[in-house]
Amino acid sequence: MPYRRSTLSKFIIEEQRKLSGGSELIALVNDIQTACKYIAVAVAKGPLAGTRGSTGNINVQGEEQKPLDMISNDIMLKCCEWGGYLAGMASEEMDEPYAIPDIYPRGRYLLVFDPLDGSSNLDVNVTVGTIFSVLRAPEGVTDPQVADFLQPGTAQVCAGYALYGPTAMIVLTLGTGVHGFTLDPDIGAYILTHPNLSIAPDTHEFAVNASNQRFWEPPVKRYVEECVAGKSGDREKDFNMRWIASMVAEVHRILMRGGLFMYPKDTKDPKRPGRLRLLYEANPMAMLIEQAGGAASTGRGRILEVKPEALHQRVPVILGSRNEVARLERYHAEYDRGEDQPFSSPLFNERSLYRNATA
Ligand code: F6P
Fold it and tell me: Which one of 216, 246, 266 would you pick to mutate in the ligand 1 pocket, going by the greatest count of ligand atoms within 8 A of its CB?
């Protein structure tokens, strides 16, 4: 009987009952899912809504803001500000934290989000998504400032993303596994379709923006070169490469069939230690990946243990199948100890990413 299926609302209530958790988190997740439905509709209208192109604005990250970035940001704020369970919100699209309007009560959670991840893909009709992370507000804080949001990823109580692709989905964790819900357009509800997602420890698929190769550190060059060499190299197996340029879509693929995704440290812009943002991209994805049995690292440590120093801080990201992440961590450690001679010597620069593959 279809009406006995588990909706996201029912699932959250049952999970919170098991965890003896409060009703505020249930209400918050309900409002997040409402926001995601609105965003899904706005994204699905595509060019018909007249929201393509650019706003002409550049956000605090130095990136072009699309009209749908701003619409999605506003939807998240308006859907989640009223319920009395949030003390504050922060988003990729806002320089400073968002204060809950005085007309609403304040609560004990903080919501951090990227309203529309991968939005450079909007004009080409490729999957985008919303990434969210829920933290506890520090005790007694009702008007949170930047410092109150600077909590390590281990402090997250809930993390997830909504996917706006061929089907709309929400994938989330409350710290008890990772579960995927598909939006049933007939009834307007997210239905549990992917319970207890789990990532295989090994993979032959990796995703990286290979055009940054010359800016990578030697351990990353080493790893990718070995993958490209495939059967003819040290790995003795062939790999496939993917790059969607939409982190939500890449992480979703990894949760569905394994793989490795990375946006590692590079020297393209020396002021930036990585491309992706810690609080609302790396941390929620790292929690999901770990909860599904994978691993998420900067290359030199667990992402979830990075101590944030700024709201829009960037961080190197390497996540997915745990044996591949462990291999990359080992390559970083060997490089840092100077044991990685062929790859850390200046001669390495003469090696080409594709040399072994074409030899
Ligand atoms: O801002 C984040 C993001 O859009 C991710 O979703 C994606 O993985 C990455 O940036 C794409 O970066 P690039 O434009 O370098 O391919």
Answer: 246
